[in-house]
Amino acid sequence: MVINLTVNGECIEYDGDASRSLLDFLRIDMNITSAKDGCAPQAACGCCVVRVDNKAVMACVRSMYQLDGCKVVTTEGLSEMRKTIYAESFVSCGGMQCGYCIPGIVMQADCLIDRDKHIQRSDIVKAITPHLCRCTGYVKIIDSIETSVERIRQDDESPLIRNINQGVGTRADRYLGNEFVLGNHLYTDDMRLEGMLYGAIRFIDSPRSRILSIDTGDAKELEGVVAILTADDIPGNRFIGLIQHDWPLMLEANDLSTNIGDVVALVVAVSEGIAREAVKLIDIECEVMDPITDPNKAIADESDVIREGDETNVLSRSRISRGDKDTAISNTVYSVKESFSTQLIEHGFMETEAAVAVRDGEGVIVYSQGQGVYEDRKQIARILNIDESNVLVRMIPNGGALGGKEDLTVQGYAALAAFILGYPVKVRLNRDESIMMHPKRHPVSMNYDIGCDSDGLLTYVVANFIGDTGGRASVGMKVMERCAGHACGAYHVPYVDVDAYAVMTNNIPAGAMRGFGVNQANFGLESVIDMLCLEGGFDRWEFRMKNALKQGSMTTTGQILRDDVGLKSTLIAVKEYYDKARFVGISCGIKNTGIGNGVIEGSKVSLEFVRGDYVVVRHGWTEMGQGVNTVAVQAVCTELGLSADNVKVVIDTSDEHNTGMTTASRATSLLCNAIIDACSQIKDDVNGQDYSVIAGKKYIGEWTVDWTNELGSRDEDILTHYSYSYATQLVELDDDGRIVTVVAAHDAGKIINPTLFEGQIEGSIHMGLGYAISEELVLKNGVPDNTRLRKCGILRAREMPDIVVLGIEVPDSNGAYGCKGVGEIGLVPTAGAVANAFAIFDGVRQTSLPLSEVAC
């Protein structure tokens, strides 16, 4: 069957597999990569939407036989005028962050504009509801489309007036934003190298089983298979991990699996399709055992350990005990005890894991989307048994991470195959595999006991947390440490007694996810705060204002806050909304900036003028949509008076700017401090002359935090973190119990870029609302009940309420320009505010997430 179609005006005769998807054809045969594969063939995310005969179509489920005589248009085929308008509108309105979903949304908008003459905001919301965005909360996407509609209707080809000042505090343009909007940015899965081979992973069949044998014979016979690699082929150490080296790249015979994401083999073939067919032919004989999926059972039966060699299933215990218990109890008039639980959550980043590796002499070059290129390098060198200097990791700005790309996944397999075979190799996970493999948000069960005196001043908090950290360590101990360290939330409490446990089970590993344990604790705490207000007859806003942290107050860990604290300012900012609303939930939040807890952390950066006033900035942080490259440009423009067009940003491991993982909301403050240091040296050398006098000279800037204490420290001056950010959020319900408005007041210290700041908060609230009312990854016996992205409960545009973002600026002495972390605090208070709103509405206190029978 010959199928005739046009693609972006080019006539095509196709005589291949008629059942093949249009997405596969576009990406592989046509090398058109603006149409993204976010979930194929699930048709859940909309990243692959293209235009087929004036209709928006998900290319992952449109077969070639359906396209005879059709006209297909992708962003590449749009008119130059429309390309310009969409790119400028999305960049100026802040409608893209990681950018992975945007080309598909642009094509959806393009069809809407040509279909409807009178487009309202509600029409845009309806049109983009088939699309998922995990970054923006949809607000600025809708703004961007509205702007595009107006300009296209008016045939307005004049460029938008660009802000000449791109420095700190301005709405500077997203760095290279146009490329992301139109799909021209190449993510790792978009890369194609000459002679490239493709890898596919063979996972274990059950979460807890003893491997008896691995038979790859039939798979090797499949035409197109180049190699099948197993644990025996690993030249170095097969055990890797961010903190503990307990995660085998591949299991071998006699190993005991600990979770459904464990791997036994890697197939490398001339195409991904062949590699995946071969994976199905690998036979694994196992002794299947009953998985341990209940953390309480895992604690109780220490004779049955998840990881062989362990003496207990308790991975870690974090303990805080401070203050005078007897005095606290004697001063207590009102008290509340309650138990809470939170659920397992999938990150749902739109770009699944992918990596490309190339053999390079005695080492490898790896193109990574991970959250820490230096951590990737360290673990890859360990796998290959080579020096780290022989591993160059180049960071490819990714399609979202949210903590889920901290642990090494596909990078190790691509590097191993390229190193052994000598060819470029790409390894990627499809959506089902991604959900099975990468660590999730910790489910946590907790018990809270809190009290206050007759005036409503808190007297004590006693809390116990058990976090299910799954079958591998990942960063589980640090997540639960953070949970413990934020157990009292944003309030001063005289007596504190907290225990937090990370417990191994045979569930999918849990690790880093936006909020990093603080969300869980805050949900429980803010719920019992409202319960205590009901018990004592206190106004909920006034109670929080009375107990709010301020300069001189003490955090959960015992740290005295020396800087001004913006929490009360956030409470004041929401007061008018609180007073007007009938059914309103309120919640405060605090979130650390930086890892802290005794860890030495910092940032290095290099600046080099390569010609005239054109400077190249090199750093080690990951760009994942939060805008770290944009704020780097803003800092350089502020310090050196340059135009943003004269600043280039590069991220790789060649300059040894080891920053560790891009986590803990710290990249902006640490990176900008390092840039300020480098620019200070430059200004001293230039001394008023032209920058050409220092052409070719490299300037290294550095800023280090080496003064924090370990959790539970008995030091006289406790400094758990170098900085904190603060927030208050309100959630308002209408008379039918629907969430209609979220008001978010956030102390960001100094707002480096208002557009990025608002986008981070709006996106965080989207995630926080999903956490509260809809999201959950359900496991049965350690295996996902469903690996469809649609079933994860991520909210769509039509399900989102109005969001009001109120920026508060109370500078921090350690933050560059006074800034504080923004990326995670945005969803710390949300679930508590939602739970409190519904308790006010119907008088029922729900204690488990997601809440039942609620809706936006």
What would your notes on this structure say?
The chain is α+β, with helices and mostly antiparallel strands and 856 residues long. Among the domains are: 183 residues, Aldehyde oxidase/xanthine dehydrogenase, a/b hammerhead (Aldehyde Oxidoreductase, domain 3, Alpha-Beta Complex), CATH 3.90.1170.50; 304 residues, Aldehyde Oxidoreductase, domain 4; 105 residues, Aldehyde oxidase/xanthine dehydrogenase, molybdopterin binding domain (Aldehyde Oxidoreductase, domain 4, 2-Layer Sandwich), CATH 3.30.365.10. The longest helix has 20 residues. The model has no long low-confidence stretch (mean pLDDT 97).
Short note summarizing the structure:
With 856 residues, the protein is α+β, with helices and mostly antiparallel strands. It has 21 helices and 31 strands.
